[in-house]
Amino acid sequence: MVYITFMRIGMFLVLLITNWRLANLKNYRLYYPTIAFIMVINLVASYLTYDHPLWYFQKSKLFPNDAMVDLWLTFVTFPLIVILYLSRYPYQSQWKRQFAYIAQWGFLFSLIEGIFIITKGLTYQNGWNFWWSVVVWLVMFPVFTLHHRKRYLWAWFICIGFLLFIIYYFDIPITEMK
User: How far apart are CA 14 and CA 8, in angstroms?
Assistant: First the structure.
């Protein structure tokens, strides 16, 4: 599965170059709280679903197991996504433009995930499917915005509520955790 490694590294390089060219990197400190927030959310979700995974990342030479891919996403990919997304967000625009911006990002990352599904770099388990991922992407980007606008409690409330819903809906056995 060498091409899976190339896809992951390719996505990283595209995000890195796009950030370098388009993101407001001078103000990266403004984005740090939201980056830390998404890291915590992703690590908690990964921990809670460790024994009852909803998706599985295909291993490869550079990423020998699912946990390594998840850590790569948490500490490398998501920070680059947050910086680019927030630094280009149309804060001063009307709500329609902001909605379109969020929808574009949700569509883009749903498309990227779809490519990983088609190439078997990612598979779903325990009832999860592509449409649930689309919902997650469409929830995640507005939450980034809320958190960045210092609506921390709302961002936490939405994420915890969504996580509790997923635990309940997908029957994730949290009582059996070690």
Answer: 10
Can you tell me which residue has the tokens 């929830």? 139
CA 18, 115, 133, 59 dihedral sign is negative
pLDDT averaged over consecutive 10-residue blocks of the chain (178 residues)?
Answer: 81 93 90 97 92 90 88 95 96 95 97 94 95 96 96 96 95 74
Residues 6+ apart with CB under 8 A from 59: 1, 65, 66, 68, 69
* Token pair belonging to 77: 């990919």
What is the C-alpha to C-alpha distance for residues 80 and 131, in angstroms, rounded to an integer? 24
The pTM score is: 0.91
What is the token pair recorded at 57? 């990342």
